Amino acid sequence: MFQIKQTVGSVVAADTQSSIEALDRAVAQQSRMCASVIEAAHDSHLAIATTQPLLDALSASVRGLVESRASLVEAVKQVAIIQAKSNLRETGFGCPSGSASRVVEEIIPINV
């Protein structure tokens, strides 16, 4: 069993939550930007070909953010696995995924 200080767990949990919130805000903002570009192009009577390179770039940016978010989801699962195998197994840090033991049991049933 891993021995992890509760203060360390709290820091990791807070940083995890902040990272998820930042990525979600970035995805939402980039999505709003896509919508704004389309609305601006429509209102300005721009030809579709004029804004296509811009939308392609924004789309790639959103895709990259979503891929980063997926990687963060995997990292959160790994944090939960470590927590579930530690003295902090039953400690709730308010992580977005819920208690570590529930998350881990959804991934792989374990007997700790």
What does this structure look like?
- It is a single chain.
- The protein is mainly alpha-helical and 112 residues long.
- The protein has one domain (6-107).
- The chain is 74% helix and 0% strand.
- The chain is built from three helices and no strands.
- It has helices at 6-43, 48-84, 100-107.
- Helix 1 (6-43) runs antiparallel to helix 2 and helix 2 packs across helix 3 (100-107).
- The longest helix is centred in the first third of the chain and has 38 residues, at 6-43.
Question: How does the SSE layout of this entry go?
Answer:
Layout: H1 6-43, H2 48-84, H3 100-107
Helix amount, in percent? over 70%
Strand share of the residues?
under 5%
Low-confidence stretches: none
Number of strands: 0
Shape descriptor reads rod-shaped
Note the main sheet.
Answer: none
Question: Concise description?
Answer:
With 112 residues, this protein is mainly α. The protein has helices spanning 6-43, 48-84, 100-107.
Provide tags for this entry.
112 residues; mainly alpha; rod-shaped
